[in-house]
Automatic annotation (TrEMBL):
Annotated Pfam families: CMAS
Entry's family note: Belongs to the CFA/CMAS family.
InterPro entries according to UniProt: SAM-dependent_MTases_sf
Protein name: Methyltransferase domain-containing protein
Length: 329
């Protein structure tokens, strides 16, 4: 058992949160940081992204990941997440400082942070300029925060979303029906099935192309990311836009497998991409290759937004969470 794994399992539950933060920072500095700053980290990143990823399957151990992340009752996530159930980081209001705001007051801004971030996604996708009847694909829709918000705001567009979690898709379908959103279609599907039109229910062979596509902190669930992005590109109409929000590391790319404690306990089969990786921002393709993505723009969101999400978001929901999952005897 790794030191970090032992700490999380046996010590963290009994320590005050400020102490945990200090210890985690020291652990990262002493045991992790030197590896990320070593001279060959860029060489390892290039080797992984250019060689190893291209030979890897699109996804691995999907059932294990679902059990780790999504298999709880939806009421658990309703209690812990914001009002729109956004299962990824938000762009926080500028007046919500990580070091000066009182946690409860900052957590109260979670609803505003969700709304701000979802509106940013809509703007980046250009949804307001799409003609009626346009089709928009969401890869890995989570608990439906973006798809349901989009469907309500743009009733003349049709939104197709999928996730490999049956619990999530059941919740999104039920919520869409309760809200009278007839312009939503949802499917249970893994990326490994999606990339092949012969096995995909979301975008089978011969289906109409999509006018836009979006993936919010979900390409990290794929290992062969290049194949996944190529599959999305093949489903877009010429000139269609694909917006990706991804969790990146400053310098390192790595696969999350059973060799690490995170892989064993939390994120089996996942992968982390580095900021300078060519996987998400490839070189422009030759003119003859239409079904390949080219990078239009890239914007970096710095660490404080993620820190705020981790530090403050769950606090106002703590009592509700206890009601959903009461402590054991």
């Amino acid at each position: 058992m790794e030191l970090a794994e032992f700490f999380v399992a046996y010590l963290q539950p009994y320590l005050p949160t400020p102490v945990v933060r200090v210890l985690v920072r020291w652990y990262l500095y002493l045991f992790v940081g030197w590896r990320m700053r070593s001279g060959n980290v860029v060489v390892r990143q290039i080797k992984l992204d250019r060689q190893e990823r291209t030979r890897a399957p699109v996804t691995t151990e999907v059932e294990v990941t679902n059990e780790q992340l999504y298999a709880n009752d939806p009421a658990f996530f309703v209690a812990h997440l914001g009002p729109r159930l956004k299962y990824s980081a938000c762009e926080w209001p500028v007046n919500c400082g990580a070091s000066t705001s009182d946690p409860p007051s900052c957590a109260a801004a979670l609803a505003d942070a969700e709304a701000l971030t979802l509106a940013t996604y809509q703007e980046r996708l250009g949804l307001a300029s799409l003609p009626a009847g346009s089709r928009v694909l969401e890869c890995g829709c989570g608990w439906g925060s973006l798809t349901l918000t989009n469907a309500a705001r743009f009733p003349k567009l049709h939104f197709v979303a999928f996730s490999n979690s049956p619990q999530q898709i059941e919740y999104v379908a039920k919520t869409a029906a309760e809200r009278g959103l007839a312009n939503v279609s949802v499917h249970v599907e893994d990326y490994a099935l999606f990339v092949d039109p012969a096995t995909s229910k979301v975008a089978p062979a011969g289906c109409a192309p999509f006018d836009a596509a979006v993936a919010i902190e979900t390409v990290e669930h794929a290992q062969n990311i290049k194949e996944l992005l190529a599959a999305v590109a093949a489903r877009l109409r010429p000139g269609g836009r694909f917006f990706v929000h991804s969790l990146l590391h400053q310098s390192a790319s790595y696969l999350v497998d059973a060799d690490s404690w995170m892989g064993r306990n939390f994120f089996t089969g996942g992968s982390i991409i580095s900021l300078n990786s060519s996987v998400l921002c490839p070189l422009p393709p030759p003119p003859v290759e239409r079904e390949v993505l080219s990078c239009e723009a890239r914007e970096v969101a710095y660490d404080p937004d993620y820190s705020l999400a981790v530090r403050y978001a769950p606090l106002p929901h703590f009592r509700l969470a206890l009601a959903v999952c009461p402590p054991g005897p």
